[in-house]
Specification:
This protein is α+β, with helices and mostly antiparallel strands and about 170 residues long. The protein contains three helices and eleven strands.
Length: about 170
């Protein structure tokens, strides 16, 4: 009987430990940022270059499903490309995205399958309590197309723990 109780206790402890770890670890398999395992860190203040995890809006989730880009249930992992007061714009003639007047990526009219991508037009300012999320991949679906998000929508600030490129997978 003692061994059954001991086993049950070990199972319960293992389950609780797994729950705690899984709430703090994020696996990125998309090309938006380097693929790998990211771990949650305290979200004291968000700065340009920080990695963040957030749930996209229902509108964005629906767009993802409609275009076949995924099931719409994935959380987004992006870098903070702009903070309160930063200015960003789509320079339409050359299809480039600028943050504070500096190149931050290209803007495409369509995805790689030829489906139209929502387009921002003009100049914008990141508002108080907002960030501009950006991916590091040329084709990332990010703030270049969706604009800003509220900092309250950021689920976690994360840092890379293990990146696949560090392990030379597939090479």
């Amino acid at each position: 009987m003692k061994s059954v109780i001991k086993f049950a206790g070990m199972c319960a402890a293992s389950y609780l430990m797994f729950q705690a770890i899984s709430a703090s670890v994020y696996l990125n398999l998309t090309e938006s940022l380097p693929r790998g395992i990211y771990v949650r860190v305290p979200k004291i203040e968000l700065e340009r270059g920080d990695y963040v995890v957030y749930e996209p809006s229902e509108e964005i989730k629906n767009l993802i499903r409609e275009n076949g880009w995924g099931n719409g249930e994935q959380k987004f992992l992006k870098t903070v490309g702009g903070v309160s007061g930063d200015e960003y714009e789509v320079e339409e003639k050359h299809r480039i995205f600028l943050v504070n007047g500096k190149f931050a990526g290209q803007v495409f009219r369509t995805d790689t399958a030829g489906k139209e991508i929502p387009q921002l037009k003009g100049k914008f300012t990141v508002g108080e309590g907002e960030i501009l999320p950006l991916g590091t991949n040329l084709r990332s679906f990010d703030g270049r197309y969706t604009g800003t998000i509220k900092t309250s929508e950021v689920e976690a600030k994360v840092v890379p723990l293990i990146l696949w490129e560090d392990w030379n997978f597939g090479k």
